[in-house]
Predict the 3D structure of the following.
Amino acid sequence: MDIYSTLNERQREAVLAPRGPLLVLAGAGSGKTRVLTYRFLHLVYDEGIKPDRILAVTFTNKAADEMKERLHNMFQQYMGLDITPPWVRTFHSASLMILRRYLSSDEAKSIIRSRIDKLLLKDMNLGSDFTVADRDDSLMVIKNIFKERGYKVKSTGDDKKAMARFLEDVSLAKRRGIYDPDKFEMYYAPDYWNLPIGYRDLFKMYHSELYASGRLDFDDLLGFAHMLLEDEKFGAKIRHLFDAVLIDEFQDVNDVQYSMGKHLAEDHGNITVVGDVQQSIYSWRGASPQYVDAFLKDFPDATVVKLDINYRSAKKIVSVANSVSQSMATRHRFSVRSHSDEDGKVQVIPVSDEYAEATQVANMIHSLSISEGIPYEEMAVLYRVNAQSRHFEEVLGRYGIPYVLVKGVSFYARKEIKDVISYLTVIHNPRDKVAWQRIINTPPRGIGSVSQDKLWKHFDDVDDISQLASVLSGKGAASFKRLWSHIVRWRKMVEEGISLVELLKDVLQGSGYLDYLIDAGEDMRRENIGELMNIMAAYDAEGKTLSEFLAEMALRTDQDTADSKDGVKLMTIHAAKGLEFDVVFLVGVEDGYMPYRRGGFGWRDVDDEEEEKRLFYVAVTRPRKHLYVTYAQYRTLWGDTVARKPSPYIEYIEYALDDESEESFDDNETYKIPADDISMLKEGDRVYSDQFGYGRVIKVIPPASIKVEFDDGTKRRFRLGMASIYKVIS
DNA sequence: TCACTTCGTATTTTT
DNA sequence: TACGAAGTGA
């Protein structure tokens, strides 16, 4: 039986590539996930690697879940095995697993301590039972720092902006592996800064507080795992867990993630990366598409396979995609070929204003549903910014067309969910100050702001949390003691192995939280807690512990639940990445939205505008059958009605539609790798120079020079590293 | 602690 | 413009 018979030639080539580094450049809709899962299977089936010794990392839970499920089915079907590989995870979750395993050891602790020594103002409380701080938690830590030092900092206006900016910078810095407060100050401190604590000191205080509470933020999960990997001796331990590494959405990796991948492949070089630079839309979050080049440099003997057959979209849509692609300055862009027999439809529709736009789209949704029988959930409205969704919601609602607004606001970020999770967090780790702050007076139990201030002031000084009762008086003290005795009781229940659902039930009763919701008539919130219980029941069924539950909760968003619901999907282009629909309405395709421009200012740099184009590429490659593009002549923004011009990108659509008859793939055959080391080149290799064009290497002259004969017959000598010379690969 | 008013804000946000 | 969050007063 040939288990690879359903793959096309290129996919097969990728899946069956020899052990060692492999780069798969996967165009939109070219079967990227297929290749990744079959590669996994191949490594097990043909190469004899154990499934639990392959690390496959993705960026989203959804992608990880999907891959896990597919692998489970494949192992069942082809090998008769009922297994789900344990290391198919997001970067964050894989890092968390690694830290859970090792952070209890003194050796690991001392490696990390030595790396963050300059950050610590108080003892860190980190062991393998740490919990994860999300953005809200981090913000709370920052606010506390000011409050406890008697500074008045508002949660609005400039102060709010400054705190947000600070956290953003902390995140960006740590994604680059920067934990040194001096470096942080140097690279990130803004020109004007009006908060009473400086950037450098706040960086230290933030981390001291966080680590004293036994918490790590998202970036620390990667950062700490990376520190352990970087240590020569300890790194080997982690590397020995895996015989192969696979990375999905490789164009989106940041510095730390890339370095982790590289370290993990150090012993065996067995690393597969799959990505599409044309769909790199997260560089503003620290992702670097340049790592595709770095990969080719670090693994010069990598097998490179390009998947250029698009199985998703009809012909016209593919030719629009190619037309956008051909205008990109991005290296490693390439055209894809449509596999479809259908033409599909691409239409540009001018409308008068945003209201007409929504009405037009609603009408078309209605008629497509009737005339072509396309179900609502197979249609999507994509826009650049969330603010654009309002009119569509309004009009679709009026038409009685079901819709789902897919927004970042997570189920897990809801107040009631966070409250309940905070109770469980305190039970798990009573030293977690942020969690305490959420539950101390929720529901109200007479511990007001004055009492609370006293509590937080002494929180770190006591050996045992119960001693805090002595800083309060009267009602507050009694109330605190009562709460504490509950917590002690719950901790005992956990020790005795109570199920998560039973524990939560007791917490809801004992804390008074349930009565509090009932009295307030908060039925919706009660339902949400019910939903949380369902999730917990699933954890119970798998025999997972409280600690595991808390860890995984923090890494979950509800993106996956969002798109299972029926109805037309409304979402930003960013949120649509990786999804596909029969019909896509791409709306607001105007200059100023695409590319996006804020406040009339120009672009900071060309890269930003290139990324806007890539975003447009992502948008036009979502539909299977039809793509409708709308732009408004007038639009009310900030209370002003202004005239709008169509987006310059519309041109690519028109070009593709005019040009359709002669589908050209002129640039399809080659791409280039920067060559700055002679080990990458040998005599006879095709090369390209920005200045002189294409040529062939006629001599390699160590240590760093080559001689090239260009296609026009001229011969030139270059010193690699000085001149931009690219190796051409077909 | 709630209901009302005023204020501030408007790019994307995988974990 | 129009939303949600924070602040105010009873």
Q: What stands out?
A: The longest helix of chain A spans residues 474-495.
